[in-house]
Amino acid sequence: MNSIALENTEPSHEEENTGLIILISCVATIGGFLFGFDSGVINGTVDGLKQAFHSTSAGIGFEVASMLLGCAIGAFFAGRLGDRWGRRAVLIISSVMFLLSALGAGCATTSAVFIAARVLGGFAVGAASVMSPAYIAEVASARYRGRLATVQQIAIISGLFCAFLSNYMLAKAAGGSTGVLWLGQEAWRWMFWMMAIPSALFLLLLLAIPESPRFLVVKKRTSEAMAVLERLYGASAAKEKFAAIDVSLSEDHHRPRLSDLINKATGKLRPIVWVGIGLATFQQLVGINVVFYYGAVLWQAVGFSESDALLINVLSGALSIGACIVTVFLIDLIGRKPLLWIGSIGMAVTLGLVTLAFASASLDASGKLTLSGSMGVLALIAANVYVIFFNLSWGPVMWVMLGEMFPNQIRGSGLAVAGAAQWTSNFIITVTFPILLGGIGLAGAYGIYTVAAVISLFFVLRYVHETRGKELEQMEG
């Protein structure tokens, strides 16, 4: 770290309240946990939805995917509202939406009510996906900001795991997801209601943490900003930190707005915004959510039993958490950019091997894809190593960079656009996989994801700039 360049922005380590910073960052990551839980809980409720709403196959598909409709909208407006109302305020709103979505989905008596509740949950997921890493980036010191922000990805995967575990235990207690459990209600309804517990906890804890000091400076709430800065970094460093944030804003100190993303000299979108959109989009174009959303379908399509397919999903989840934990220790040591290009290379190679294995598949008498023993092993190992590379790199690092790469003046607007791009790409990959599966097959689909991984490598090497060790006031855009 260049101590001369940072002497006016880096607070004294002796005065810094590291414990408080870690504590309030952990509160913010509960948003990531709910992000994961809300994404995963739907997996155990499909039979219950069919029985309760008498939905057709198309209807079930829309009910399952309805959350994604709200995610891009939630991410976009969260960034904008974060500039107007505050990072903490938007997280509080998202916690309320998580709570209402959990209660509403469980209580729904019609498909329309259920979809409305899930779309509301999508708003919350989209908001939490961009505001939680932004809040963490704005309260943490540069020397460990990446580690704290990476915990967000661990929280997301932990939320998925807890949703799967909760669904399993409730279904087992009731004798199936459609079986009656407590208070005469079916188990699938309790699966949604379980999310109300962490949602309520998130809301209560958010009320106890401070607003982002950088937001307070932008809003010219000087006394509040100084109070928060003193709590986080110590009294002697607060004034210097305040001055550095203030200098980083626009010359006329106008309120952040979406038009700030346009370079006044060229009339074009700032290059840093395109980089943010690229990072957000490539994270999805490599096909990771095909593994998360269609894991069981994928492995059954190449000959694994349903039981084996579910076990492979559990293995993938465990490997994901392990890889993210490794990233916590590496991200502030070697930097963001090296992790991204290492991940791109690893994903390109492993996706290529998966494509090769699937290309060798043949059809049995019933028309089902089958793999030879050696190719089945290759596909299984390569796919799980791919999951490791993703969660070692693009999974957590993309969110870390989006939270910290934009200058203070445009952080909310930049997150709005990049977050919306991420969720739109997520939706496109999710809905196109079944189409690709029926058209060009598994090998063709994974071939497309392989090409995206290769292109992402060149994108990182050419356009992404390192942010490790830099204070947010040093970000250029």
Give your account of this protein's structure.
The chain contains 19 helices and two strands. By secondary structure, the chain is mainly alpha-helical. The protein folds into two domains: 1-252, Growth Hormone, Chain: A (Up-down Bundle); 256-477, Up-down Bundle (Growth Hormone, Chain: A), CATH 1.20.1250.20. It has a two-stranded antiparallel sheet. The two termini are 21 Å apart. Residues 1-11 have low confidence and may be disordered.
Features:
mainly alpha; 1% strand; single chain; Growth Hormone, Chain: A; two-stranded antiparallel ribbon; 477 residues
**Helix content bin:** over 70%
Average of the residue pLDDT scores: 81
* First-to-last CA distance: 21 Å
* Major beta sheet, strand line-up: 1-2
**Which range does the strand content fall in?**
under 5%
Provide a short characterization of the protein structure.
The protein is an all-alpha fold and 477 residues long. The protein has 19 helices and two strands.
Give a topology summary.
Blueprint: H1 18-40, H2 46-53, H3 57-85, H4 87-107, H5 111-139, H6 145-174, H7 187-193, H8 196-206, H9 213-218, H10 222-233, H11 235-248, H12 271-285, H13 288-301, H14 306-334, H15 336-359, E1 362-363, E2 369-370, H16 373-392, H17 394-404, H18 411-439, H19 441-463
Antiparallel strand pairs: 1-2
Helix pairs in contact: 1-4, 1-5, 1-6, 1-8, 3-4, 3-5, 3-18, 4-5, 4-7, 4-8, 5-6, 5-17, 5-18, 6-7, 6-14, 6-17, 10-11, 12-17, 12-18, 12-19, 13-14, 14-15, 14-16, 15-16, 15-17, 15-19, 16-17, 18-19
